[in-house]
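Narrative of accomplishments. A recurring question from our advisory board has been how the design workflow behaves on a single, concrete structure rather than in aggregate. To address it, we present the structure tokens for one chain from the evaluation set, followed by the sequence designed for it. No filtering or post-editing was applied between the two.
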């Protein structure tokens, strides 16, 4: 589990009835084909209270790049602390529907060639502005370079987010 981006960004446990994201290595192609029948690995313990009585709590539809239809993400509920935990594909940052590698390739192209890749310019501009925000929090740079991206990644921070809470707990 990586540390938070600042000491008070996350409580040691989510609030009661909170939702915790569980990052899981997933065969995305198989998930697309099998939908709700996909064999999600069940967590052994509740990440919040460490109870061992997690129950299936249905599915949540989430949209990701390259998929026209939403993919079903498994949810579990802990009867002891009432927390709901939702699985999330580990190839994506929270609140982003594009793969991490797609975002990083876009940043590399912008830094190296000063141009956008051949898809939504608005999305790429949003990522670039997020990198500017995160880089300025770290140091005073006029134009972020790949060094700033690496430094943010080394600190387990999402380099393209616009929020201060820029890192989540991973199991």
């Amino acid at each position: 589990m990586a540390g938070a981006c600042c000491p008070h960004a996350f409580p040691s446990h989510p609030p009661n009835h909170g939702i915790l994201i569980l990052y899981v290595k997933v065969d995305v192609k198989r998930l697309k084909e099998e939908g709700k029948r996909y064999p999600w690995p069940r967590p052994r313990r509740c990440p919040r209270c460490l109870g061992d009585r997690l129950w299936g709590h249905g599915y949540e539809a989430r949209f990701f790049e390259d998929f026209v239809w939403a993919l079903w993400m498994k949810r579990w509920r802990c009867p002891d602390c009432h927390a709901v935990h939702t699985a999330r594909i580990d190839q994506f940052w929270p609140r982003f529907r594009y793969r991490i590698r797609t975002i990083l390739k876009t940043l590399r192209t912008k830094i190296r060639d000063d141009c956008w890749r051949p898809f939504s310019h608005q999305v790429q501009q949003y990522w670039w502005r997020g990198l500017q925000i995160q880089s300025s929090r770290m140091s005073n740079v006029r134009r972020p370079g790949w060094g700033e991206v690496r430094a943010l990644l080394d600190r387990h921070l999402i380099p393209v987010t616009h929020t201060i809470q820029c890192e989540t707990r991973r199991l």
